[in-house]
Specification:
Belongs to the SAICAR synthetase family. This is Phosphoribosylaminoimidazole-succinocarboxamide synthase. It holds the Pfam family SAICAR_synt. It contains six helices and 14 strands. The chain has 233 residues and is α+β, with helices and mostly antiparallel strands. Helix 1 packs parallel to helix 6 (220-232). The structure holds uridine-5'-diphosphate. Residues 87, 89, 95-98, 126, 173-175, 196-198, 210 line the site of uridine-5'-diphosphate.
Length: 233
């Protein structure tokens, strides 16, 4: 298989079909724009299984995704897309950079769900941007596409809040990425995993996501395994 791209958490391989690629989830863990890095054996398989379950559920909800099927423990066959270089972050509860930037106490429930855009650019440290910034950087062709990203972000959130609540987890915030397929449709791409979400246990309030790694708070493998087991159960 010809490697097309290798990122911090994934490898993308070519297939015989020009419209499809294989996405492999790596065991590597990074935080703070790659400043903190480590490896956790089995994490790739856990994330691959978790994101597959979530994307299949979202697909059923009418949210178009790049997922075609999972092909082995760490790999998915996905539609090839042109990634829109915007990280769409949706927040229900204050945490992370929102708490730091605006001085909101971690855990404060926001009066309504908010959507933020970040410019996907490691050299610039993924800065927070507004619609005008996205337009002058040509990150999308039309402003309506930004509205679509917000609309999908909120729709995904509505579904996932209930989905995780059923398995005893609070969805604090998450990041999603979208791409354009060969026909120019905007579809959900990348992943939704505990690397890209904040998930807190409803009963204990315990963090069960990448913050465990970011701040050396505990065993991510144990937490991710627990999430997968609840999703399967
Ligand atoms: N997030 C992500 N990748 C990034 C930045 C953020 O997956 O490059 C996720 C993060 O895990 C959290 C949400 O987006 O669930 C909001 O992250 P935040 O802006 O609070 O940044 P952080 O403090 O996590 O760097």
């Amino acid at each position: 298989m010809k490697l097309l791209y290798e990122g911090k958490a994934k490898k993308i391989y070519e297939t015989d079909n020009p419209n499809e690629v294989i996405c492999e989830f790596k065991d590597s863990l990074t935080a703070f724009n790659g400043e903190k890095a480590d490896k956790e054996e089995g994490k790739g398989a856990l994330n691959c299984a978790i994101t597959t379950i979530i994307f299949e559920a979202l697909q059923k909800e009418g949210i178009p995704t790049h997922l075609i099927k999972q092909i082995d423990e760490t790999k998915q066959l996905v539609k090839k897309v042109e990634i829109i270089p915007i990280e769409v972050v949706v927040r229900n509860i204050a945490a992370g950079s929102l708490s730091r930037r605006l001085g909101l106490k971690e855990g404060k429930k926001l009066p309504f769900t908010i959507v933020e855009f970040y410019y996907k650019n490691d050299d610039l440290n993924d800065p927070l941007i507004n619609d005008d910034h996205a337009m002058i950087l040509n990150l999308v062709e039309k402003r309506e596409e930004l509205d679509k990203l917000r609309e999908y972000g909120l729709k995904i959130n509505d579904f996932l809040v209930k989905f995780f609540d059923k398995i005893g987890l609070i969805l604090v915030d998450f990041k999603v990425e979208f791409g354009k397929d060969k026909d120019g449709n905007i579809i959900l791409a990348d992943e939704i995993t505990p690397d890209s979400c904040r998930l807190w246990d409803k009963k204990t309030g315990k963090k069960m996501d990448k913050d465990l790694f970011r701040f050396d708070l505990g065993d991510i493998k144990e937490a991710y395994t627990e999430i997968l087991n609840r999703l399967k159960g």
